[in-house]
Fold this sequence. Notes:
Elements: E1 26-37, H1 40-48, H2 56-68, H3 71-74, E2 83-93, E3 96-107, H4 112-130, E4 138-148, E5 155-156
Antiparallel strand pairs: 1-3, 1-4, 2-3, 4-5
Helix pairs in contact: 2-4
Amino acid sequence: MTEPRLTHLRGDGSAHMVDVTDKAVTRRTASAQAVLVTRIDVVDAIADGSLPKGEAIGTARIAGIMAAKQTSTLIPLCHPLPLTKLDVDITPEGDRVRIVATVTTKGVTGVEMEALTAATVSALTLYDMIKAVDNRAVVTDVMVLAKAGGKSGDWSRE
């Protein structure tokens, strides 16, 4: 079995932006998550909006949405994409907050990086808002959960 070729590398090993000119325009969706692990009392404060910095869930949701729209300026070889839908769901669960970002476009390349960026920046925003009360919190479990559309088809971690 041959090793898969990395599409972002030229034959000489240098990086380049992949040519997507001839790819079909299809509906593409991806979901990704990030998890903020902290103390239960901090999660309670996040949930009820009583943090010293204010209402964290709405702030983190907006940060994730803004970040997803900037992915191609943050990740060097990403194509800029017109995002047609973007949901950031933030769910407090015991000693953690789970962030799931789902991004959709109608385009020629997938939106996994946009979903990962949204989830991660949302988690980082939550961390920023709680660091005064728990600077030992951890952002973890950043991963793509599912994708749909495109040449490689649908995929789900579950």
